[in-house]
Amino acid sequence: APRQGTLNRFFGKS
Amino acid sequence: MLEARLEQANLFKKVVDAIKDLVQDCNFDCNDSGIALQAMDNSHVALVSMMLRSESFAPFRCDRNIALGINLTSLTKVLKCAQSDDILTLKAEDAPDVVELVFESAESDRISEYSIKLMDIDQEHLGIPETDYGATISMPAAEFQRICRDLIALSESVSIECSKEGVKFACQGDIGSGAVTLRQHTNVDKPEMNVEINMSEPVSLTFSLKYLVNFCKASGLSNQVRLCLSNEVPLLVEYSLANNSHLRFYLAPKIGD
After folding, report:
1. A chain contacts of residue B45, beta-carbon cutoff 8 Å
2. Most buried one in A6, B105, B207, B238, CB count within 10 A?
3. 3-class DSSP state of B221
4. CA A1/CA B8 separation, integer angstroms
5. Nearest neighbour of B47 by CB, restricted to A4, A11, A14
6. Cα of B108 vs its chain's centroid, Å
7. Residue A14 to residue B125, Cβ atoms within 8 A
8. Are A8 and B46 within 8 A, CB to CB?
9. For the segment B10-40, what is each residue's pLDDT rounded down to a tens digit?
10. B47 vs A8: CB contact, 8 Å cut-off?
11. B254 contacts A2? CB cut-off 8 A
12. Contact B241/B52 with Cβ under 8 angstroms?
């Protein structure tokens, strides 16, 4: 089954 | 100081109701452009981004940047004390310990005043990159809610595929499978029923239905919802509000198979 990714990889701290 | 008067307390109630199961403690960032909120869920899978622009309030006054750290469970308790037709005014000092909520009845002379103790929330502020999405779908919010609620009965995940054929929501579960395909559709008499698909490249992504069903709690805020997809990037689910305000949800895709 596909595993859930997270947003950390996409949205950096500003 | 902050003083923000909202003609419809109900709008704020609905926004808080739509996000309170995803995020618990949030900073409401107030400045002269309006009231913004950005918060990730504990598992860092979903992000809520709300913007209530100053134009949505009348009057709106905010002299300097104020972060109101509020527990949404507490906020929900207080907002329950407002009638849906009430006028809501949010008030805070420049370095506040509390936020004040005043509910006024438009019809009677009742004024209700509540306050909520503020929290110090160490919030990581994330930069959301501008994205040229491969596919953008506008559709009735109620239709999207219906599809998500139907498919979650069969599976934890939904694949969203956008192609020349339209947009296909499909799932596979232990008992069987389900799929709903929508094509571009214009309803002249009821434009809120329109389905508009703009695609620059085919996209195919898989998402957790649990989160999507949660986002759909915002369905009462807007007739239409906009889904923005690109392969391997988070889904954007956007509910537009009056005066250029919005409630957006981002959801990280599921990876691999």
Report:
1. 4-7
2. B207
3. helix
4. 45
5. A11
6. 32
7. yes
8. no
9. 999 999 999 999 999 999 999 999 999 999 9
10. no
11. yes
12. yes
